[in-house]
Amino acid sequence: MNVVDRDVGRFGPRLVATFAIVVLTATYLSVLYETVDIAGGLDLFVPVVAGAFLGGLVLGRFLPDSLALPLALVIAVGGALLYVPSIPNGELLLSRLDLVVEDILALLTGLSILKIINAGVWATAFAPVPVFLSWFFVGRRRYSLAALVGVAALVFLILTSDAGVILGLFGVLAAATAVGVGDVDLRGGRLADADGVAMVVAAMVVLTVSVSLVPGGASQPLLRDTGGNADTIEASLTGTSGEISIQGSISLSPDVRFRVDADEGQYWKVASYDRYTGDGWVRTAPVRSFDGTQSGPDGPTRELEQTVTAETDLSVMPAAWKATRVSGEDADVTGFGGIQPAEPLGPDERYDVVSELSTATPDQLRAAGDDYEDVDVEKYTRLPESTPQQLTEYTTVLTSNANNSYDTARIVETHLEQKPYSLDVDRPSGDVAYSFLTEMEAGYCTYYATTMVSMLRSQGIPARFVTGYTPGQEVDGEYVVRGLNAHAWVEVYFPGYGWQTFDPTPSGPRQATEQDSLDTARSEGESGVDVPGSTPTPTPEPTATPEPTAAPTPGENGTASTPSDGANGSGGETPPGGVGDIGGLDPAGGDGSVPTTTGGGDGGFALPSPSREETALGTIVFLGVAAAARRSGATSRAYRAVWLRRQPRTDDPVHDIERAHERMEYLLARERRPRRTGETPRRYLRSLGDRDAMRVGDIYERAVYAGRTDEAAADEAVDRVDALVKKYRRF
Amino acid sequence: MRLTRRGTLVALATLGAFVAGATFGARALNAVAAPSLVAFAYAVVVVWRTDQPRVERLIPPAGHPGETRRMQFNVATSGTAELTDRLPAGLRPRSHTTPLLGDDHVEYDVEYARRGAHAVGPLTIRITDPLGLVARRFRYENDKEVLVYPAVTAITDGGALAGLVDQSGMPDRQAFDRLREYAPGDPLRDVNWKTTAKYGNLVVTEYAAEDQGAVTVVGEATPDGTGDNADAMADAVASIVTYLLDVGIEVEVAVPGGELPAGVGDRQRQAALDLLARTPPGQVGTDAIANADVHVVAEGETTVEVRGADVRYADLVGGRGVTA
């Protein structure tokens, strides 16, 4: 064994344990990095984390354990001093501990850190604490404490639903490795002594992954799935999470959701979203209860009265923008002026809304200017820092002829409307907006709206993503709105006129798709698809509407697509925040869409073919199997088996003969009997009565003791031993 | 088989993951809960299948208080384990814990704090799984003991004992007494060849001191609950005996723990120290007191009575500390 081997043997456990902590740190840092990337502040985040890492590692080598927590506390206080002044009313937060506790509880029960105000600064304040602490402990070789800190940070991010299953699994595996191999290091062991750790970690991979792969199982099989995982558009619409992740292929639900009695059809808005994450949307506005009125948009407006009647359970409050008065049901209002029911509505419950619709003309909007002092322009023009630069360049070139925000928005809208419409798309892996603009051949409303917002924001125009329903089918002065009418569009801010609606989704193909979906449902006789009068007279097949009075039994048939599914699942009491997965919102009506592939959120272990993650997990399993084989002695047995059967020849006949003789002794000792002490080899071989063996014994004696031998003798010895092996061991 | 501290923490976290998942939504908690359960299942199987490790303890030799020796073990086990050895009050440290990895050799320093025959152990070996979640304890009772002799202090002022040295059983071959006829059993070296040659019969020389017999040292101590008196007595007796043996006197010892017949030399000193290491406080028989040349009594203060004359032990050792 040379020097290098010895060093690897001695420092191997330390290297592996340290590497494991690196992986663990990377898991939670990647989540925080993503947050900072989306919310801003990368310039500060990287040096802060690097400083915490180096500081922890270096100080850990010199300072005692007892200083770890005080130092971490100092860093935490420093972080708080960084974060608190950056938020409005930050001082209030310091004096109201109950508010802090409330916020922490909200985070621990699933509030994404993306919804925190100034999430980037928050992540920059949070990250150095676990990084410093765990690397301080690594410096002290307290691997289990380092792993504890890392896992705690990771679990926190899992609880806030920001860290996915794969990330969590890698973190936990790394922590287990650090603890187990760290123990070996502390006991002065070698890497080979950590075989038990390799085995248990491999078992974790195999069992965790295979349990999750049970057909039809939810993505998180061991825990009851109580929400968040809306798999239909409808469920996502009624979700309460205040965030949306863009999905792949979806389908449409034809079930009737609600009816609107109004003089004109409008886009029935449900929620708006400000923070774009690159693969979804988050609303960062707080929700408070609605006192009955709020001001309408700036500029010229007109009133629209609407009476909305729920046809199924409904946890959203669709209304034309902007609702100023609500009666009939208790409502909440978001910081963006959107309304939500305080309690989910049941079938036939109704509410009256008066909306103020902006009547600004294009010319007025063209002249609105760009004095955005009444709006949080930073919030509504922020894009993830990882957004490809080409998106900005593309938009700049595209809109070079426009000299005002309105024209820019119209150009982008018109440009996107050229894009083919399809519900059947694969979710792109990178930035959704840029992918839709360049790679994707088609998409649905979510993609159009996301892309338009991104493009406008790249030009410094405040824009946000909006979900809701298209007007629906007009029946006797009422608008019947189905799940397939769910839609996503864009609002752009104009000083003096407020938020104005734009819809980059081509309406023709969208409506055609919706109609197809509805016709199919009718022809298959689904109930809940129509209300009295909504069935067109020339029904393709008479059996299409078996129950003309479908209204009394809504949702009974629409299996996955009734809104109640989503609402009940995640606790219907929570205020309907916003549209759940955006994927759900199809262009015109895509409500009932069932994503056929979960694009890759925290969906679970449906690993895409040979991904990096899969390779890493495969390597872990391989190491575990190798360790198990080694421990059980399988490797040495395998080596013996090969050694016995294959003798490589050398130039030295004496060496060959010795080796052949060795093989023969090994074989005979196992298959016949071992040579007794005091028994001469010659007598031993004779007693076995095997001619081949005796002949090899003769050759061996002559070669070794008399020194007389040649290649021919060596050939003969090897051949005869081969024959012996064949005779005794055939398998 | 029980959970370690680490295991308890992981178990609580796993339970928390289930509760949090059931209450507020699964999120990615499976990534925490499932591997933890696997780790526990693996741990239980591994620990349950482990055989009792074999341990061999190498007892360090006897010594005096203040000395440091090495306690050693050879352990045959597999995987990660922890050895904990407990020591009685007379030895320091009171317990020692060492992590083990597979077959291992463990040694640690033991300081001999107090006179006595100290039964060491019990020894426990705690086997854990590779991640240290579940542990199983094996206990080894031990019948071996570590012997700590009394503290022997050099007697600087031997004046009080001078009479003993002069008169007692030192075979002073200069002190001629008389000649007599040879009797079977007389040592040949005592034969006076000159006279024998003259008279024709074997004549032996008899020396003056030879018949004086051994010095008997008796020790007594009042029981005081702490054993301090017994220690003081043992220290004093050991110091006096060592002194007398060093000058070549034949010594006999009687203490509450037993009696040692007369003898000389290193072997006698060893035997005396063994006896004194174990002796409890108490009285000796009246016969022994009657025969005593030196009578040590420890009852708070240690006094030494040499042939009827009282001496403070502290004076004998030149005022140096009499260890309790």
UniProtKB/TrEMBL annotation, chain A:
Regions crossing the membrane: 12-32, 38-60, 67-84, 104-136, 143-159, 165-184, 196-214
Top-rank lineage group of the source organism: Archaea
Tell me which UniProt keywords the record has, alphabetically: Membrane, Transmembrane, Transmembrane helix
Q: Does the keyword Transmembrane apply?
A: yes
What residue stretches are annotated with the Transglutaminase-like domain?
A: 437-506
The protein's matches in SUPFAM superfamilies, at most eight in alphabetical order, are given as:
Cysteine proteinases (SSF54001)
**Compositional bias annotation for Pro residues:** 535-551
Compositional bias of kind Polar residues? 504-518, 556-565
Instruction: State where composition is biased (Gly residues).
Output: 568-604
SMART domains, per the entry = TGc (SM00460)
The UniProt annotation puts the region (Disordered) at: 504-611
Gene3D superfamilies assigned to the protein according to its UniProt record, in alphabetical order:
3.10.620.30
PANTHER family recorded: PROTEIN-GLUTAMINE GAMMA-GLUTAMYLTRANSFERASE
What is this protein's record name?
DUF3488 and DUF4129 domain-containing transglutaminase family protein
Automatic annotation (TrEMBL), chain B:
Which top-rank group of organisms is this from?
Archaea
Keywords, comma-separated and alphabetical: Membrane, Transmembrane, Transmembrane helix
Please state the span of the N-terminal signal peptide per the UniProt entry: none
Q: Which InterPro entries match?
A: DUF58
Record-annotated DUF58 domain positions:
179-290
Listed transmembrane segments: 31-48
Give the Pfam families listed for this entry. Answer: DUF58 (PF01882)
- Put simply, this protein is called DUF58 domain-containing protein
**Which species is this UniProt entry from?**
Halomarina rubra
